[in-house]
Specification:
The complex is a heterodimer. By secondary structure, chain A is mainly beta. In chain A, 9% of the residues lie in helices and 46% in strands. Chain A folds into two domains: 13-30 and 175-438, Neuraminidase, CATH 2.120.10.30; 46-172, TolB, N-terminal domain (Rossmann fold), CATH 3.40.50. The model of chain B is unreliable at 1-6 and 18-49 (pLDDT under 50). The chains are: A mainly beta, B alpha+beta.
């Protein structure tokens, strides 16, 4: 697990660093010690009434995971469904011939999910079917295959398929969330960088440090992450961390700030904030050639760069007008445009993937909220009602965002749908939680072995 | 107009401050060799001081020559207003004492640690903390301290001294700490 020093083509020797110092700080804790728990704080008024029947295992022994339970929990926690408890089900069908529509109509169920799992060599096949009870018709059936270790991923995949079929919105259950936890004991602080499934399960600590860890962000491929860590001489450096190999490297450790890394949409460049030239300004590093390009040049604070989806501009925060506001800079000619004019504190903005709006931290009446700025109408919509809200991160499906907030003096994560209709809290079992970052794509894709959309 | 001029001056002082005495050709200056060199030069230039200073737990204790009873431990904590990086007038007197000691003993080394309260975003607060530390450094330099004597580091809102989520806590967290080594 040696880190590789980077071979720098530029003259700057700061890029090349000894590997040994890094590997010491690396710590992989396999134990899922800090799982997050989802609590729905506000669901839609008329959720779709759905029943997810426990899925039978048709092999020997027992499966290590209740896959039907994972699906049931995913859909329930999306806030858009009303799930029928298993205890109220009149029958537990596993396949088509066991479905009696009358049973489900009696229970006022609109949609029914059934399925079973069976061995396929050393793998497991999952077959599931979705029924429209009122139309008395099967609308979807699919078979997927995976390993025993992938059972939870298979469950999330099924949830995604059902969710999209019934709501028209791409699901985000098979995604992950990266976040920082901080535990305080006396004057000591322990910072941990963790990654968990979007439902809070399978939490893993990828880095542990007594010095601050922040600004963790995903590469577009979902296989690498970057973050700022103060572990080395209590100074900030930007690290690139390969999740598959566990190796990592220092990207920048200039004098002054090394802050707010953001991968370009193609993953080849990284925008960041450096103050080495006298002032916090935004730079772009080409990850291949290691060539560094200065983007902003202003005596004010320029920070929190995020890329537009086409990669042709950066959105950033600047106090060049006196107070922090959001600006956009076009990379072809460095032309700058101010985007926010309402309120005296707008920061950490990111553009929605369709370009229609900005998600940002917005102060209103002295309280920090997450807000959506509709760029066409120029209208702010405050999405959160908690206080000290920060670090919004949008799900890859664009329909939900996760952010950090404070509840009962404890830092927790919370989610809200972009339309503001569904809200969740994700309290942690230990410590304060902050700085969530939603993975850019699904953890695992399952190509259906068989699929049918009869209805 | 007035404001623009001030900003310009500020930017200039920042640039001078960060580049320090060492005019390096590489964009990032290396803190080690060049700075020590400057420090040695300073030490040679400074006339022998009449007061003594010593470092205790990161704090500076100064005393007039031979007068141990009159020893004074300098305050190393300086507070700021929300989203501001202006050294308050009320802090000038104490900072002047630091500057005098630094000027008097070129071998003194310190770290300026900038902090912010928890409000606002983490990255912005990192920049703000650095601004504050630089403002204190610029003040010390204006009073005769050498750039080579200190380093600047910002922790943003990551290391609060008071965990209270109200102005009572925030007022203590918006700070620059002078830590002698």
């Amino acid at each position: 697990m040696q880190d590789e020093g980077i071979k720098s083509r530029s003259s700057c020797r700061l890029f090349i660093l000894p590997a040994f110092a890094l590997s010491l700080a690396l710590c992989f804790a396999p134990a899922a010690w800090s799982e997050l728990r989802i609590e729905v704080t506000q669901g839609v008024d008329n959720g779709l009434r759905i029943a997810v029947v426990p899925m039978q295992w048709r092999g020997r022994g027992r499966l290590p995971l209740d896959v039907g339970g994972v699906i049931n929990s995913d859909l329930r926690l999306s806030g858009r469904f009303e799930n029928l408890p298993v205890s109220q089900m009149l029958s537990l069908p596993g396949e088509a011939r066991e479905v009696y529509y009358r049973d489900w109509r009696l229970l006022d169920v609109e949609y029914l999910v059934i399925g079973y799992l069976e061995p396929a060599g050393t793998n497991i096949q999952l077959h599931f079917e979705l029924y429209n009870v009122f139309k008395r018709a099967m609308t979807l059936s699919q078979t997927i295959e995976g390993t025993r270790e992938q059972l939870r991923d298979m469950g999330h995949h099924v949830s995604d398929v059902i969710f999209e079929q019934l709501t028209g919105i791409e699901g985000a259950f098979a995604t992950r969330i990266m976040y920082v936890t901080v535990e305080e004991s006396g004057a000591e602080r322990l910072f941990r960088l963790n990654i968990a499934d979007a439902d809070g399960h399978r939490a893993q600590t990828i880095l542990e440090s007594k010095e601050p860890l922040l600004s963790a962000t995903w590469a577009p491929d979902g296989k690498r992450v970057a973050y700022v860590s103060f572990e080395r001489n209590q100074r900030p450096a930007i690290y690139l961390h390969d999740l598959q190999t566990g190796t990592r490297e220092i990207i920048t450790n200039f004098t002054g700030l090394n802050s707010a890394p953001a991968f370009s949409p193609d993953g080849k460049q990284m925008a960041m904030v450096l103050s080495k030239d006298g002032n916090p300004d935004i730079y772009i590093l080409d990850l291949q050639s290691r060539r560094l390009r200065r983007v902003t040049r202003h005596y004010g604070i320029d920070t929190e760069p995020s890329w537009t989806p086409d990669g042709e501009a950066l959105i950033f925060t600047s106090n060049r007008g006196g107070k922090p506001q959001i600006y956009q800079i076009r990379l072809v000619d460095f032309q700058i445009q101010r985007l926010t004019f309402e309120g005296d504190y707008n920061a950490r903005a990111s553009l929605l993937s369709d370009g229609s709006g900005l998600i940002l931290v917005h102060r209103r009446d002295g309280i920090f909220h997450i807000a959506l700025l509709d760029l066409k109408r120029g209208r702010f919509t405050v999405l959160t009602e908690t206080s000290l809200d920060e670090s919004p991160s949008v799900a890859p499906n664009g329909s939900m965002l996760i952010y950090a907030t404070l509840v009962d003096d404890k830092g927790i994560l919370a989610m809200v749908s972009i339309d503001g209709g569904v809200k969740f809290n994700l309290p942690s079992t230990r410590g304060h939680v902050r700085e969530p970052a939603w993975s850019p794509k699904k953890t695992m894709q399952f190509e259906p072995v068989a699929q049918d959309f009869p209805g | 107009m007035e404001k623009a001029k001030l900003h310009g001056l500020y930017a200039l002082s920042l640039t001078i401050f960060l580049l320090g005495g060492c005019a390096t050709t590489t964009p990032a200056y290396t803190p080690s060799a060049s700075e020590d060199q400057t420090a040695d030069q300073d030490r040679a230039l400074v006339s022998p001081s009449r007061s003594e200073s010593r470092v205790q737990d990161g704090r500076l204790v100064i005393s007039a020559d031979g007068d141990r009873a009159g020893a004074e431990m300098l305050n190393g904590m300086f507070y700021f207003d929300f989203d501001q990086a202006i050294v308050k007038r009320t802090n000038h007197a104490e900072l002047n004492k630091h500057a005098r000691a630094l000027k008097g003993d070129g071998s003194l080394r310190l770290r300026l640690e900038g902090h912010a309260d928890e409000r606002g975003t983490r990255e912005y607060n990192l920049a703000l903390g650095e601004r504050r530390a630089i403002a204190v450094g610029a003040y010390l330099m204006a009073q005769g301290a050498s750039r080579a004597q200190f380093e600047v580091i910002s922790y943003g809102e990551e290391k609060p001294v008071n965990a209270t989520h109200s102005e009572a806590g925030w007022v203590q967290n918006r700070r620059v700490e002078i830590v002698y080594r």
